[in-house]
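User: I'm preparing a small set of examples for a lab meeting where we compare how different chains pack in three dimensions. I only have the primary sequence for this one, and I'd like the structure in token form so I can line it up with the others. Please keep the answer compact; I'll paste it straight into my notes.
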Amino acid sequence: MKVNEKFKETSIGLIPTEWEITQIGDVSRLITKGSTPTTYGFSFENSGINFIKIEALDDSTGKIRINVLAKISDKCHAQFSRSQLKENDILFAIAGAIGKCIIIPASILPTNTNQALAIIRLSDSILPKYVYYQLKGNLIQSSVTNMKTTTAQANISLEQVSGFLIPLPPLHEQQKIADILSTVDEHISETESLIEKTKVLKQGMMQRLLTQGIGHTEFKDTEIGRIPAEWEVVKLGKITRLITKGSTPTTYGFDFEDDGINFIKIEALDDSSGKIKTDVLAKINDKCHEQFFRSQLRENDILFAIAGAIGKCVIIPENILPANTNQALAIIRLSDNIYPRYIYYQLKGNLIQTKVNLIKTTTAQANISLEQVSGFMIPLPPLHEQNKIITILTTIDDHIDTYQSKLTALIKLKSGLMQQLLTGKIRVKV
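Assistant: Understood. Below is the structure token output for the 430-residue chain.
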């Protein structure tokens, strides 16, 4: 790739001199939309022709969520002849979650769609994949965002879709741009698949290790099920030095600050990684932190959500201290003969999370008391086995973190490439 300095000024900004500007409608054979079957006396079926609603569009991958496709009869599909989809048609959401976009693959045909999705069928002079990336790029998505914020209803007309302006390089350059971005998309998809598979592996390992341990042949029945014979069952409160919660600063006359002591609300808990989202931490002043001395956090304290999104859980790292928290989060400070990370995994495991889900479904308000947290029954192996279990699960977590970092880097790379390639700021060698 090489930087190109030969540009011309246009209504959509600087583009290479040999590129053109075109409206989507000028390079399309058809721009239309579908209909809702029930409006015309048809019902959705358990099987039949695929029918795409907006929720079936996975905007992050640009693919169809096969598991949420609806179904219609052959008769309904035949009546909606104008919205019968073809391979490489582009679907663009024009109602609700406007701006979502996918290309139709041959594998889901025959299929149809409804009035929330514009069907863009392009002429042979333009590459569908290139137009897909333009529709997902800054030029179009900025227009979409503007429409979302300036209209009472989030809707786009087919005329507006037809009038979208895009820069148009020669066909061979469209192909090269699409190939580069598709390659990055493939790496993103592969990395997401690795993350998902590793999470499934972790879930299975947690289920086995946290109830069966490592290498045991003798088991005993307990109130929480079968566990290794040498393990104990203990209440969480029996192996802690402290189980408490914090307070809301404004209740006691304190304001949140722009800078100061970290203050953790429930939204700062990243439940998938078990880490703190440092970019959403609130701040309080020193005086407030001193007054809330009972909820001043220490390294390796466990925070467990007891209100709202109950069951979320993190371990406090040293690098966010000093820190404090509020009444939606229980602070669990363990005794010296227990590994905090072992208890963290138990709190994230099936035994406790099943209990949490039961509370969610049987109570009007999703709340757990400190007494209930203290009463959680935990299978407890000897300290050396706790450490072995932690080592195995932490290794899997490290793999997930590595894949997640790679995914973040790929997404950032794609964003930068789209911005540069789709405007011709960086040209491709063909």
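A couple of notes for your slides: The first helix runs from residue 74 to 79. The mean pLDDT is 93.

User: Perfect, thanks.
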